[in-house]
């Protein structure tokens, strides 16, 4: 992880690149206009630079301050060899996040960067900037030499007001570190990433966190306790399924949150097999599980006073002589039965067990699940927007707000009660797939059938498309995004406070 720390002055040895930050004109101004807005230069001059000279230089600069746009100046003033001017837009957290990400990418060829913070720089600005810097410098590589060129290693945030923003840097550090953990897990190829391997990684990550316990159920234990969905989906794989339960139980916590995350380590579709193109990226199908685990670890690392249980059912959906078939009947944890109509609608089958386990055994205050559940999610909302489902207005608003602050967008879709009859089985309680369209909502309605008396305290996030990015862009690197970790951490902060 990039070394990011505060200093009161630009370190002499370290300064390869210095920076000042520009703020765009007011939001009501036409953003597309070619006019240069009033440049508001926020940074303080580095030592050895004459303030008047800097001011004169900046007066000549044409920079619209657009968030994430960076200008590079070579030897603009003695003794600065390179100066980057980064726009922060209107100066909100998202603008600072874009600036941080753009700086990390522009300064890639340098080892050390000093960022001059404005004197009135607050928590949101530091949090955004630091998250952007950290996340944009994320890399995942399995190359033989493990050397993909020069790398930015040290960033100094220059400020005289470190005390007031030190917490913000630590908050951002945890969010970034846990997002990167989720990215690493999700990027890992599925030959390595078996359910057992995933469980082992989660156990290992929890080892250094006091107060966190992790229990892993193997197939024998799952059979003994009746986790029929997890066993059916995992039955076709040479690598048996697991069920991971992570618990963070701080003293004095008033609320108990249960997070459930889909952990399909690879989804071929099973006997109802996907197309070649359709399964290309299906190693990402545990992105929800990675996100809820990472968020729980992050909350524990920050000692947030809220009890959290994360449940991650893990299975590989494969084709084999032992795989489940269409027409098979599953008896889920707790007894609800489902006829398998489509073996590719496997995520809901493992989540059903976990949701029933949550409501029967854990009795939480609130229940949230994250899953790469349907292709229909991206048809409805595209690549960068998750689908949110909940019958609880307040919970829906809280999650949406947390996502907006975190830079992870979601949009609420309906749960129409009259559609549920399409899920009725002929001789089972439910079927796992229908042919009436509305795929993302139908999947959500299926899950809702397993929330029992928690129906109004439950939310479901379908993050199928946002879990992955086709290109490097802003704080996202090509590949796994770690979607949900930052949203959940923000939301958990509010849960700890209530
Ligand atoms: N893991 C997929 C959903 C998915 C698709 C995630 C594309 C990310 C990108 C899920 O298990 C699945 O296959 N869903 C089916 C459900 C259908 C068979 C009812 C789908 O969406 O096609
Ligand atoms: Mn599937
Ligand atoms: Zn799947």
From TrEMBL:
Family annotation (HAMAP family): Cytosol_peptidase_M17
Family of the protein in this entry: Belongs to the peptidase M17 family.
GO CC, alphabetical: cytoplasm
Pfam families in the record: Peptidase_M17, Peptidase_M17_N
E.C. numbers: 3.4.11.1, 3.4.11.10
Function comment: Presumably involved in the processing and regular turnover of intracellular proteins. Catalyzes the removal of unsubstituted N-terminal amino acids from various peptides.
UniProt protein name: Probable cytosol aminopeptidase
Domain of life: Bacteria
Gene3D superfamilies per record: Leucine Aminopeptidase, subunit E, domain 1 (3.40.220.10), Zn peptidases (3.40.630.10)
Keyword Hydrolase: yes
Class of enzymatic activity (EC top level): hydrolase
Keywords: Aminopeptidase, Cytoplasm, Hydrolase, Manganese, Metal-binding, Protease
Protein's organism: Virgisporangium aurantiacum
Compartment(s): Cytoplasm
Note on how the cofactor is bound: Binds 2 manganese ions per subunit.
Chain sites annotated for binding Mn(2+) 1: 267, 344, 346
Molecular function per GO: manganese ion binding; metalloaminopeptidase activity
GO biological process, one term: proteolysis
Domain named Cytosol aminopeptidase: residues: 342-349
Known cofactor(s): Mn(2+)
Catalysed transformations (reactions): Release of an N-terminal amino acid, preferentially leucine, but not glutamic or aspartic acids; Release of an N-terminal amino acid, Xaa-|-Yaa-, in which Xaa is preferably Leu, but may be other amino acids including Pro although not Arg or Lys, and Yaa may be Pro. Amino acid amides and methyl esters are also readily hydrolyzed, but rates on arylamides are exceedingly low
Active site: 274, 348
